[in-house]
Amino acid sequence: MNMLPLGSKTSEFDYRSAARAILPRLAATADNSEKMRRLDDDAAAALRESGLTRVLTPRKFGGFELSPSGHIWACAELGQVCSSASWVLMVCVAHDYIVGRFPDQCQKEVYEGDSNNLLAGCLQPQGMVESVPQGWRLDGRWQFGSGCDHSPWFILGAKATNPKADDYLIYHVMVPRAEVELDDTWHTLGMQAPAQRILWSVMPSSPSTASCLPFRRSSA
C-alpha cells in the first residue's frame, strides 16, 4: 500500500475505505501481535500507510482534522479483526488532538519528520514537572503507554513540583523517545499486543526536546 500524500485535503480522505482496505493485513498479523506482546510491525505500518493515524492531526502538518466520530468509526471497524490494532490507533490518535494545541514549534518538531507516526503516552499526571531557566524538567513513572514500541514521541501528564495556589492542575509534556525508558511489565492473558508498558523518564531540562501544555484549575 502506498503512503497517502501529506498534502491530501480533508474532503479527499475516505476514512471508511481506508479502514476497510487494511483489514486483511491486520487480520493476518493479529496472532503474531499477541505472541510478541506488541503490535506487529506490518500492522503498525498498515495503520500509518492508511492515513488513519492523521485523522486528528493538524491540517498544516499534513493531517485531516476530521471530527472524533470518524476516528471512533475507524477504530470500531478495525476491532472486528484485531482488537489490539484498534486499541493502539484509538489511544495514539487521540493524543494528536491534544498535540494540536501545543505551541507551533513543538508541533513542528513532532510532525515535520513524519506526521503518520503513532504518538503514545499517558495523560494522567503521574510525574512531576518544573520550569527551569533552560525549559522544563520532568521525571516520573507512567502506566501505561499503549503503542509505545512504535512511537517516536511520548505525551506525558505531570503536576508541578512546587505548585502555587493559582498553578495549573495538569501539565502535558512532549518528550522524545530517546529520553524515555520502557519497563516491560505488560503480562496479561488477553490484549497483550497493545504493549502497555510502564514509561519511565528523568528528563534533563532542554527547550529543544520538550514542550509543555498546561491546563488551569477549574474555578468551580
What does this structure look like?
- It is globular, with a radius of gyration of 17 Å.
- A seven-stranded mixed β-sheet has the order 5-6-2-1-3-4-7.
- The protein contains six helices and seven strands.
- The protein has 220 residues and is an alpha+beta fold.
- The protein folds into two domains: 13-111, Butyryl-Coa Dehydrogenase, subunit A, domain 1 (Orthogonal Bundle); 120-216, Butyryl-CoA Dehydrogenase, subunit A, domain 2 (Beta Barrel), CATH 2.40.110.
- It has helices at residues 15-21, 23-36, 41-50, 68-78, 83-99, 104-111; strands spanning 120-132, 135-142, 153-160, 168-176, 181-183, 198-203, 211-216.
- Strand 3 and strand 4 (168-176) form a beta hairpin.
How is the secondary structure organized here?
Blueprint: H1 15-21, H2 23-36, H3 41-50, H4 68-78, H5 83-99, H6 104-111, E1 120-132, E2 135-142, E3 153-160, E4 168-176, E5 181-183, E6 198-203, E7 211-216
Parallel strand pairs: 1-3
Antiparallel strand pairs: 1-2, 2-6, 3-4, 4-7, 5-6
Strand content: 15-25%
Biggest β-sheet strands, sense, barrel? 7 strands, mixed
What is the straight-line distance between the termini?
Answer: 50 Å
* Helix and strand run: HHHHHHEEEEEEE
Q: Just name the CATH architecture of the largest domain.
A: Orthogonal Bundle
CATH topology-level fold name of the largest domain: Butyryl-Coa Dehydrogenase, subunit A, domain 1
Overall 3D form: globular
Number of domains: 2
The average pLDDT value, as a whole number, equals 81
CATH class of the largest domain: Mainly Alpha
* Total number of beta strands: 7
Oligomer: single chain
Number of helices, counting only DSSP H or I runs of 4 residues or more: 6
The residue ranges in which pLDDT falls below 50 over 5 or more consecutive positions are: 1-10, 192-197, 202-209, 216-220
Read across the widest sheet, the strand sequence of neighbours is 5-6-2-1-3-4-7
| CATH homologous superfamily caption of the largest domain | Acyl-CoA dehydrogenase/oxidase, N-terminal domain
